[in-house]
């Protein structure tokens, strides 16, 4: 009799939750998680796939409210992408070249990530937000969401987010109309770390060429 009870309990534990995901409630919980943070730090891997090619880069990301971000790429080459919330700098040390623009004119796949802190509202940012039924998330227990971005509708056809049960976004996939994709994978999130504002400003070394109004990844 005891064995029957144990088996019944085991089946109950391993059965999936039959209740459908309430996407609206889940999105509000993700919003609430990020809107209560003042800063973030994580390791990232960026993977681009398109036109028969694939490119993978990695480094560390820092975010600070409002709209401040710093992407330090270490592999396969060193480069730096920094914003203080008003200006944006993209520095290529090997080429001794700096590209600079106004944040309001930025059309870059990294720019929506700057808005994670402070005023996140997924259902405003992603039209038709829904669960992805035909793909499995990379992490066990994670939830995969999709939607059409309102802010970058001309350059992106869909955005997918992988969210942990703790409401942390660990993967973002940005899909272009021509079939190209840029995927960001995040690990080791650290929340509310102490970050100086100076970390989100860039002054070029002597001898660096500065190009105004042109940025590329």
Q: What is the makeup of the main sheet? A: 12 strands, mixed
Strand order of the largest sheet: 7-8-9-10-11-1-2-3-4-5-6-12
Please indicate the count of domains: 1
Strand content: 35-45%
Q: Portion of residues in helices?
A: 10-25%
CATH class annotation = Mainly Beta
Q: CATH topology, anyone? A: outer membrane lipoprotein receptor (LolB), chain A
Distance between the termini: 64 Å
Keywords:
single chain, 217 residues, mainly beta, outer membrane lipoprotein receptor (LolB), chain A, twelve-stranded mixed beta sheet, 14% helix, disordered N terminus
Summarize the structure in short.
This protein has about 220 residues and is mainly beta. It has three helices and twelve strands. A twelve-stranded mixed sheet has the order 7-8-9-10-11-1-2-3-4-5-6-12.
Please characterize this protein's 3D structure.
By secondary structure, the chain is mostly beta strands. It has one domain: Clam (outer membrane lipoprotein receptor (LolB), chain A). Helices cover 14% and strands 41% of the residues. The protein has helices at 2-14, 23-35, 122-125; strands at residues 39-50, 53-64, 68-75, 79-83, 87-92, 97-102, 126-131, 143-149, 158-163, 169-175, 181-191, 209-212. It has a twelve-stranded mixed β-sheet. Strand 2 (53-64) and strand 3 form a beta hairpin. The chain is globular, with a radius of gyration of 20 Å. The termini are far apart. 19% of the residues are buried.
């Amino acid at each position: 009799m005891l064995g029957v009870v144990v088996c019944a309990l085991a089946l109950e534990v391993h059965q999936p939750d039959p209740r459908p995901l309430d996407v609206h409630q889940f999105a509000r919980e993700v919003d609430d998680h990020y809107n209560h943070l003042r800063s973030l730090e994580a390791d990232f891997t960026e993977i681009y796939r398109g036109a028969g090619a694939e490119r993978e880069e990695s480094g560390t990301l820092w975010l600070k409210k409002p709209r401040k971000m710093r992407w330090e790429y270490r592999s396969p080459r060193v480069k730096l992408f920094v914003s203080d919330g008003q200006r944006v700098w993209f520095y290529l040390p090997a080429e001794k070249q700096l590209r600079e623009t106004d944040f309001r004119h930025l059309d870059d796949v990294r720019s929506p990530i700057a808005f994670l802190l402070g005023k996140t509202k997924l259902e405003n940012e992603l039209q038709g937000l829904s669960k992805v039924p035909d793909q499995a998330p990379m992490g066990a227990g994670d939830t995969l969401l999709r939607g059409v971005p309102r802010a970058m509708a001309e350059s992106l056809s869909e955005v997918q987010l992988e969210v942990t049960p703790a409401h942390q976004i660990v993967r973002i996939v940005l899909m272009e109309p021509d079939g190209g994709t840029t995927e960001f994978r995040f690990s080791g999130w650290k929340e509310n770390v102490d970050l100086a504002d100076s970390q989100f400003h860039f002054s070029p070394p002597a001898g660096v060429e500065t190009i105004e109004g042109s940025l590329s990844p």
